[in-house]
Amino acid sequence: MEKKFDRRGLGRGLSALMADVNIDSVSAAPELRASELLLPVEKIVPNPDQPRRDFEPQALNDLAASLRQKGVIQPLIVRKKPGQDLYEIVAGERRWRAAQIAQLHELPVIIREFTDSEVLEIAIIENIQRAELNAIEEALAYRQLMDRFGHTQEKIAEALSRSRSHIANLLRLLALPGDVQQMVQSGTLSAGHARALITTGNATELALKVIGRGLSVRETEDLVRKSAVDPAKRRALARRGEKDADTRALEADLAANLHMGVQIDHVQGGEGGKVTISYRTLEQLDLLCRVLSTIPRDAEF
């Protein structure tokens, strides 16, 4: 009789996975070994939502050499792709990639049923536990959990044993220009340095100075304070239709808290402006209405 698996919420997916196969263990329990199957490598496909995008070639080659000698000791966790004779990786993509380098034709797997949210959660946790995500990849993974599956910062923090401030600080990095984010991803700029640049209007320029001078995080913070954008420059940015880093950071913080798209537009030459909130579902609209309705009617702004 086929065993049925309960759907699991955020924070329980990894527990269920660890009950099936101990990722950090060299050997698995006999009863779990009995549940393994061998699948041809070509029938196994990667998870398109895998939060990790960069796989260090030398590390893969080292793992491939180990697999040639010892074989694949830890089975992959996979799920069946609906209507296809293919299996999507839930955990173990590095082993799958290394196995191809080692020219292995079959891999041991354990097949389980997981929702999209659970698969993403497990992929994130597996990578985070092994310290394989850089700060931007980790932030993008959290953003994906929030945007695609509606999880709050508090819920993610609790499930992944992280502080809410850790989650919020990483998400704020996504307000930085793309070239600065790339510096963090490549390891040229640390996450600590990048955080100091979030509120600046010339993050790219300052990032290059930080790298060129080899500044510490504290020295970077001093550099940011000395080069703070004055009001005249802020108004000049507004006239050109550009947003300063403070505005981008505020948009990111509001979006992270509301789980909706937020756009802030200042009126040129004035102190006012407008805030545009984009909702995707009626449930989100209902939530927004409830939040706004809690503001006292006699509140003064």
Automatic annotation (TrEMBL):
<dbReference type="GO" id="GO:0007059">
    <property type="term" value="P:chromosome segregation"/>
</dbReference>
<protein>
    <submittedName>
        <fullName>Chromosome segregation DNA-binding protein</fullName>
    </submittedName>
</protein>
<dbReference type="Pfam" id="PF02195">
    <property type="entry name" value="ParB_N"/>
</dbReference>
<keyword id="KW-0238">DNA-binding</keyword>
<dbReference type="GO" id="GO:0045881">
    <property type="term" value="P:positive regulation of sporulation resulting in formation of a cellular spore"/>
</dbReference>
<dbReference type="InterPro" id="IPR050336">
    <property type="entry name" value="Chromosome_partition/occlusion"/>
</dbReference>
<comment type="similarity">
    <text>Belongs to the ParB family.</text>
</comment>
<feature type="domain" description="ParB-like N-terminal">
    <location>
        <begin position="37"/>
        <end position="128"/>
    </location>
</feature>
<dbReference type="InterPro" id="IPR057240">
    <property type="entry name" value="ParB_dimer_C"/>
</dbReference>
<dbReference type="Pfam" id="PF17762">
    <property type="entry name" value="HTH_ParB"/>
</dbReference>
<comment type="function">
    <text>Involved in chromosome partition. Localize to both poles of the predivisional cell following completion of DNA replication. Binds to the DNA origin of replication.</text>
</comment>
<dbReference type="GO" id="GO:0003677">
    <property type="term" value="F:DNA binding"/>
</dbReference>
<keyword id="KW-0159">Chromosome partition</keyword>
<dbReference type="GO" id="GO:0005694">
    <property type="term" value="C:chromosome"/>
</dbReference>
<dbReference type="Pfam" id="PF23552">
    <property type="entry name" value="ParB_C"/>
</dbReference>
<dbReference type="InterPro" id="IPR036086">
    <property type="entry name" value="ParB/Sulfiredoxin_sf"/>
</dbReference>
<dbReference type="InterPro" id="IPR041468">
    <property type="entry name" value="HTH_ParB/Spo0J"/>
</dbReference>
<dbReference type="InterPro" id="IPR004437">
    <property type="entry name" value="ParB/RepB/Spo0J"/>
</dbReference>
<dbReference type="InterPro" id="IPR003115">
    <property type="entry name" value="ParB_N"/>
</dbReference>
